[in-house]
Design a protein that fits this description.
The chain has 7 helices and 9 strands, in the order βαβββαββαβαβααβα. The strands form 2 sheets. The chain has a 5-stranded parallel beta sheet with strand order 2-7-1-8-9. A 4-stranded mixed beta sheet has the order 4-3-6-5, with helices on both faces. Helix 5 packs antiparallel against helix 6. The relative contact order is 0.22.
């Protein structure tokens, strides 16, 4: 592994309401070797679900460990989603990826994405993935068959607030047709990392 201490990579943020397709787009971009991207693994204080692996899906920390890291200013951004249920990006995660000479790609919620953009305005490309409509979003969430109607309704009401933040991002990609959205995302990222 070549360590590049002088390499200052770029940060590519993807944010969107749940069901917009951002994770699909991020996975696609990670598969393109020429873009030289690595995924930023978030830290969380929530319990592991199913087959999740520490250091691959998330860095799983206790609420106490999370609060200590907040106090020690170890996070690039963090949020308490529910009481003692934290999510955040460790500064060490970005440093780890930059040390490998790669650019960092985030699949992150709207507020976290905007915090990263504010901290690193020059190095960050903040992309908002917009669903064609709220109705389409609801259809996509129902098709997943992973959540109750209550949870879906909660995500839909949150989506309206998230959509209102779209103009604060550098670029908005409307994911009506996935193939088109993938090409658009690819071009944006390629231009940004080579500029």
């Amino acid at each position: 592994m070549s360590t590049q201490p002088n390499f200052k990579g770029k940060l590519i943020v993807f944010s969107a309401p749940s069901g917009s397709g951002k994770t699909t787009i991020v996975r696609h971009l990670l598969g393109i070797e020429a873009l030289n991207l690595e995924f930023s693994i978030s830290a969380t204080s929530r319990e592991r679900r199913g087959e999740e692996v520490h250091g691959k899906d998330y860095y799983f920390l206790s609420a106490k460990e999370f609060k200590t890291k907040i106090k020690n200013d170890e996070f690039l951004e963090w949020e308490e989603v529910y009481r003692d249920n934290f999510y955040g990006t460790l500064k060490s995660e970005v440093e780890r990826i930059w040390a490998k000479g790669k650019h960092v790609i985030f699949d992150i919620d709207v507020s976290g994405g905007l915090r990263i953009k504010r901290k690193f305005p020059e190095e960050t490309l903040a992309i908002f993935v917009k669903p064609p409509s709220i109705d389409e979003l609801k259809i996509r969430l129902k098709k997943r068959k992973t959540e109750s109607d209550d949870k879906i309704n909660m995500r839909i009401s949150k989506a309206s607030a998230e959509l209102a933040t779209a103009p604060l991002f550098d670029v908005i990609i409307e994911n009506r047709y996935l193939d088109k959205a993938l090409v658009e995302a690819e071009d944006l990222v390629k231009n940004f990392v080579t500029s």
